[in-house]
Amino acid sequence: MTEFEWPWQYSFPPFFTLQPNADVRKTQLDAWCSLVLGWARKNNVGQIDVTGATSMVVFRNDSISRALPADGIRVVLDELAKRGNLEWTDKTKRRGYIFWRSVREWGQQIYQWAQDTSRMNTVCTLFEINQGDETAGQEFHGLDGDILIKALRALEVAGKAELMDFGDNQGVKFL
Amino acid sequence: MDRWYWCDSSLTFGEIVATTAKSIRLYDGDKKTTFEDGHLTLTNQRLLWRHESQSSSLGLHLGLVALVEEEPGGFTSSPKLILHLAMPSPSQPAGPVTSSHNSHIKLCFKHGGCSSFHQVLQKALTDQEWEKLTVQASPKNHQTKRPAGKTIHTGILGIERAIQAKQEKTNQNISRAFEDLKNLMDLAKDMVAISKSISSKIKERSGEVSADDTTQFRSYLLSLGIDDPVTRETHGSAMNYHHNLAREIANALETPVKEAGGVMLLSEVYCRINRARGLQLLSPEDVINACQVMKQSNQSIHLHTFESGVQVVQSVGLDQEKVMKDTVEALQRYETTGMSAGDLARECGLPLLLAQERLLQAESCAEAVRDESSQGLRFYPNLFFTRAAQ
């Protein structure tokens, strides 16, 4: 796995201060969103906890001794939520799922994989999909369990899959 | 001890008892005498000591007392008063002791009351009532008479007297000085009252200012040395006054403002115009009002208020774009470290407040971005835009 390549903004001190100028702030937030998503993708981060976010390496750069303050983190996460890349787990907005691909995109990828590996009309466990050896090369390998279910539910709504509950284990049948 | 003399216990003319004390023993110098357990009476002229069983008293004229000291009591001794005495007059009647080489006596207060007696005695000594009585003395009380016209210049008494006289004079001087001040304050009070009534009348426009009031007011002002008070009558309406003032300020400060880079803080304007005017100073309010009307009266400089509320006077021809360009250039020189308002102030020779305003202005134009950290507020060139475009 190659080292995550930090964007240039990451070592630009003003990046860690929310800019009051509206135009500048928009650009800044764009950069933040792509940084957070890129970092989450690289490190396979599925959930972000707001209280713990201040200590996350993505929100702080100790080499220039700058860190995005808590309200700044909130603004970035809200922006991500607005763009559909983040979904709060509850109304208190303390935790959120982070989607560096949208749920629909994940569903399509998984469906594509199922088609390619001719698993149509067969049942796979969720474990097989995000942890199994057969998906090792896929992007959704190691995907957060909750996000996986969300993706599969999206497929179910589209009539391409059917979720099954085996008590302690869950499975999916691709149609 | 030789200052005591025999006398009867009755008071002489004009003599008033100030206080008494019981169980007093007399000392000659530091030595005890047989005069003990006596009744001591202090009058405004004498000290009288009488043993209860005797009818005649020992008298001591207060004029002889030069200094009184208090000697606190201990376990075995009672509190005492030490009286330092001057030489007796030769005409003094005979006493129990004809001569003594001690020039002080002690009064031993066996049953206390020493301090309070001391206070009353001190007061009697300061009042010096026997002096007044000597002037109008009747032949009857020749006993208390002192050689007239003779002031003592030597000895402890002389020094005491001199100091006392000096103190009295100082006291008089001080009270006279305060009297003057009081007069002035009374006058000022009147003036304030009149000016208040005049201003309230002007405000309400209910009653005309009477000619009487005006002349009185004027006379007060004249007495203070203001012979031509600046009033609405002499300068027309306030608006007119401010317009004239605006012209004056603009004329005086046009060049300095240009030299300062086209912008000058209002505080500096205030200082400079007052320095130029010398004695006829302007109030800050007048300066602000005058600056506010500069735009209307088309002066070469006018007032500009930044978003933060900082007010400056700037040249009409000030090229905002050039200012911005200069700021951005300065910012670029500090691209790696960021620039604080202080840095810009040094770089461009501006007041700190103005440098801060320039940076904020650059920020609002998306030319600068801020970095708030524990090291304070710094500004960087807006790389978000410039680098993204590359």
TrEMBL record, chain A:
The keyword Transport applies. One of its GO terms (biological process) is protein transport to vacuole involved in ubiquitin-dependent protein catabolic process via the multivesicular body sorting pathway. It is found in: Cytoplasm. InterPro entries: ESCRT-II_cplx_Vps25-sub (IPR008570), ESCRT-II_cplx_Vps25-sub_N (IPR014041), WH-like_DNA-bd_sf (IPR036388), WH_DNA-bd_sf (IPR036390). GO terms for cellular component: ESCRT II complex. It comes from the Eukaryota. One of its GO terms (molecular function) is structural molecule activity. Keywords: Cytoplasm, Protein transport, Transport. Belongs to the VPS25 family. PANTHER family: VACUOLAR PROTEIN SORTING-ASSOCIATED PROTEIN VPS25, VACUOLAR PROTEIN-SORTING-ASSOCIATED PROTEIN 25. This is Vacuolar protein-sorting-associated protein 25. It comes from Petrolisthes cinctipes (Flat porcelain crab). The lineage of its organism: Eukaryota, Metazoa, Ecdysozoa, Arthropoda, Crustacea.
Automatic annotation (TrEMBL), chain B:
The keyword Thylakoid does not apply. One of its GO terms (biological process) is protein transport to vacuole involved in ubiquitin-dependent protein catabolic process via the multivesicular body sorting pathway. Its main location: cytoplasm. One of its GO terms (cellular component) is late endosome membrane. Residues 1-137 form the GLUE N-terminal domain. Coiled coil: none annotated. Gene3D superfamilies: 6.10.140.260, Pleckstrin-homology domain (PH domain)/Phosphotyrosine-binding domain (PTB) (2.30.29.30), Winged helix-like DNA-binding domain superfamily/Winged helix DNA-binding domain (1.10.10.10). InterPro entries: GLUE_dom (IPR021648), PH-like_dom_sf (IPR011993), Snf8/Vps36 (IPR040608), Vps36 (IPR037855), WH-like_DNA-bd_sf (IPR036388), WH_DNA-bd_sf (IPR036390). It holds the Pfam family Vps36_ESCRT-II. Keywords: Cytoplasm, Endosome, Protein transport, Transport. GO terms for molecular function: phosphatidylinositol-3-phosphate binding; ubiquitin binding. SUPFAM superfamilies: PH domain-like, Winged helix' DNA-binding domain. It is found in: Cytoplasm; Endosome. Component of the ESCRT-II complex (endosomal sorting complex required for transport II), which is required for multivesicular body (MVB) formation and sorting of endosomal cargo proteins into MVBs. Belongs to the VPS36 family. Component of the endosomal sorting complex required for transport II (ESCRT-II). This is Vacuolar protein-sorting-associated protein 36. It comes from Petrolisthes cinctipes (Flat porcelain crab).
